[in-house]
Amino acid sequence: MASVNKVILIGNLGKDPEVRHLEGGVAVARFPLATSETFKDKSGQKQEKTEWHNIVLWRGLAEVAEKYLRKGQSVFIEGKIRTSQYQDKEGNQRYSTEIVADNMTMLTRGEGGSSEGGNSFQGSASTSSAGTNYNAGAATAPAGVAQNDEPDDLPF
User: How many CB atoms lie within 10 A of CB 82?
Assistant: First the structure.
């Protein structure tokens, strides 16, 4: 039987990405992403629930995140869920759930810019109306990100 592990999130960065470079020069970036939903409770009061997701980007995507992403910006993330098991200092069994991103689209331009358009970084090196596509497996970030005034292809 086939199985699928796919996550799609649109949210806001909770803090600037933390980027580390491993021994082989491979970059890894981590940041929290907040997604929110509003609903009415039983008494008719409007409630908001925010869910926090731990995002992990590797190689080229990590370098793009380091260069362009900042706290508060909106981003579209596509990837898979990964749960790790480890022991804390007291020997207790702990679990950590992360979203390992394969594709990323910046929905906010620049520092605190508008939410129009965006740049897409994903598994192919080409240009589309959604912005600049980027190969997630490459070890270097693009020299610059071209701004695109055309509407994006996202259905929302």
Answer: 14
Alpha carbon separation from 80 to 25, 83, 103, 109 (Å, rounded): 24, 10, 10, 25
pTM: 0.71
Separation of alpha carbons 146 and 144, rounded Å? 6
SS3 label, residue 55: strand
Structure token digits, residue 58:
């590797």
User: Over the Cα atoms of the chain, what is R_g?
Assistant: 17
Nearest to 109 by CA among 66, 149, 53, 142: 149
How far is the C-alpha of 137 from the C-alpha of 126, rounded, in Å? 14
pLDDT digits (tens, 9 = 90+) for 123-137: 433 333 344 444 454
- Both tokens assigned to 72: 């508060």
pLDDT digits (tens, 9 = 90+) for 31-57: 999 999 999 999 999 999 999 999 999
Q: How far apart are CA 151 and CA 50, in angstroms?
A: 28
Q: What is the largest CA-CA distance in the chain?
A: 56
Q: Could you tell me the two tokens for 124?
A: 């192919």
Distance CA 42, CA 136 (A): 45
Nearest-angstrom CA–CA distance, 70 and 19: 12
